[in-house]
Amino acid sequence: MLRDGEPITLPPKDLETLLVLVENAGHIVEKKELLERVWPDVFVEEGNLARHIFNLRQGLGDSADGRPYIETIPRRGYRFTAPISKLGPAVVSQREISSAQPPLRIPRQEIRFCVTGDGVRLAWASVGSGHPLVKAANWLNHLDFEWESPIWKHWIEQLTRHHRLIRYDERGNGLSDWEVQDMSLELWVRDLETVVDSAGADRFALLGISQGGAVAISYAVRHPERVSHLILHGAYSRGWNNRVPPEQLEERVAMKTLVRSNWGKNLPGFSEMFAKRFVPENTAPEHQRWWDDLQRVSTSPGNAARVMQACDEIDVRDLLPSVSVPTLVFHCDRDQVTPPEEGRILASEIPDARFVPLPSANHVLLADEPAWKIFAHELGVFLGWRDIVPSRLRKIS
Hints:
The termini are far apart. The protein has helices at residues 12-23, 31-38, 46-60, 94-99, 143-146, 153-160, 185-199, 212-222, 246-262, 268-278, 285-298, 301-312, 340-349, 370-383; strands at residues 2-3, 6-7, 29-30, 70-73, 77-80, 110-115, 121-127, 131-135, 163-168, 204-209, 227-233, 327-332, 354-358. It has two domains: 9-80, Orthogonal Bundle (Arc Repressor Mutant, subunit A), CATH 1.10.10.10; 110-393, Alpha/Beta hydrolase fold, catalytic domain (Rossmann fold, 3-Layer(aba) Sandwich), CATH 3.40.50.1820. By secondary structure, it is an alpha/beta fold. Strand 1 and strand 2 form a beta hairpin. Strands 6-7-9-8-10-11-12-13 form an eight-stranded mixed β-sheet, with helices on both faces. Strands 3-5-4 form a three-stranded antiparallel β-sheet. Helices cover 40% and strands 16% of the residues.
């Protein structure tokens, strides 16, 4: 899909919603029908549908006459109003059919909702089978958008080969409620408690990435009997306010001001700066586009700045000696978001933790970099994956 010659990237459910509307162009599609077509096996509330329609309008813009492509029919549904042209079926040769590769079968994720003690509705997803592995939410989550993204897709595929993977959208992000009064580390920990209880996960491995590391550490200290393994990647025990000198705090304040003003606007300078902090190496244009779109679909400018502020106030260093579960700490040696020293602090102050430095500058590992292979192997050894042979048992050639 193109607009002014430039590709438009849509999350899978946004695209499915658009296809249903275009197939019925000029006619009203009832909300119930849309929900049944796009989410045939999952209960999803109307508020979720409204958010996908909002995302579509943001991505499509307005038609040449200034009217929106998608019209809202109050209390009924939606109608695609722009004229369309239907093309005939493409002619495909038998040779092309016989040489085509079979489609990759990816397990279907189930998205459900739960409600926290303070009334916030959280979206969580489960996919795969095996010993549960729960990923604590971190900044910029969107369960549906992550599913096909070049940033997270290989993570999901790798982890679901061996585990029932449970993920959720942080309050104020993704498919969870955006209109929330409070954000803090304490509330994030309670949100994790709510999700694992709703998912029926009694004992599980817990993965904390970036800010999710502090959430995972706090949970593991409170509920050691439920955490079989603790995995930390790019994580930290001290937020920005507790680890940098005053002059650098001024830079952080400026960054939050930029976020409030430019978030989700696809401004080239801002978007490029943002993406290069998280994935400066081995990036392709699709990664840049994905980060741009993630800003738009994941949260509002105000919520993005609020999450940053709550992350800056994190300080769980005093909890590290109290972690009593087996712990593996990964950290990229040139991480641009979380200083490598923060990973070394975690590994040295959590009793018996093992530290694995990774040769990368990326905060989130990409599929094609050597560090990802190291990460996957060491994680497999730690979690006991059957298709991983521990390094110490390899034959030396």
